[in-house]
Write a structure and sequence with these properties.
Layout lengths: L13 H62 L3 H27 L10 H11 L3 H30 L3 H29 L3
Helix pairs in contact: 1-2, 1-3, 1-4, 2-5, 4-5
């Protein structure tokens, strides 16, 4: 008969068994802590994502206003349309510069162009002329685009997570509301032109 010698494991004794449970418990708590930290970081990214999305949409809207208004300066013979277009170029360029500074401070890249949908509207405008152009510019870029911008900025002036983003939206909103009022007046004025 052969005797087999098996050394007893140090962890199988009652004293070591408690240490093993503590080590396993600590490891489980560490894993849970890392998971919680990742969940918190992910939640922070989601909030920052909403603010980033706002900044991108705001940049696209401003780019659309400026691009379409430059076309209006070239195509329109109506002094009221030209005056509105120049105001949009000046004021949206200024707001765009402020937005670029804000985005840069938040490490957010902004588009230099309008969105695809906005570019499609601008392409339609480029094919028009005369009173038809003036009416579509006042309606699509003046009124409709500013209605969308006002909604976007109203929402983010109260719901943005980042206080700087929230302040930017709140500070810019009155100007956009004034643009919408001007656009509605322009739309009424060009509606009667032939």
């Amino acid at each position: 008969m052969t005797l087999i010698f098996r050394p007893q494991s140090r962890l199988s004794t009652p004293a070591h068994s408690g240490k093993l449970r503590r080590v396993i418990g600590f490891a489980a708590l560490s894993v849970a802590g890392v998971a919680l930290a990742l969940n918190v970081a992910h939640a922070a990214d989601a909030v920052a994502g909403k603010d980033k999305s706002f900044m991108v949409k705001a940049a696209e809207a401003g780019n659309a206003e400026v691009n379409a208004s430059k076309i209006a300066l070239e195509k329109s013979a109506n002094p009221a349309v030209k005056k509105f277009a120049q105001t949009m170029i000046d004021e949206h360029t200024k707001v765009g510069d402020e937005l670029k500074q804000l985005a840069s401070s938040k490490d957010v890249s902004l588009p230099a162009e309008p969105s695809v949908g906005q570019r499609a509207k601008i392409a339609v405008l480029e094919k028009l002329s005369g009173a038809t152009f003036d009416k579509r510019y006042a309606s699509m870029i003046g009124v409709s685009a500013h209605e969308d911008a006002v909604k976007l900025f109203q929402k983010n002036s109260t719901s943005a997570a980042d206080p700087d983003v929230k302040n930017f939206a709140a500070k810019t909103l009155p100007g956009l509301q004034a643009h919408l009022k001007m656009a509605n007046e322009l739309k009424s004025e060009v509606a009667t032109a032939k």
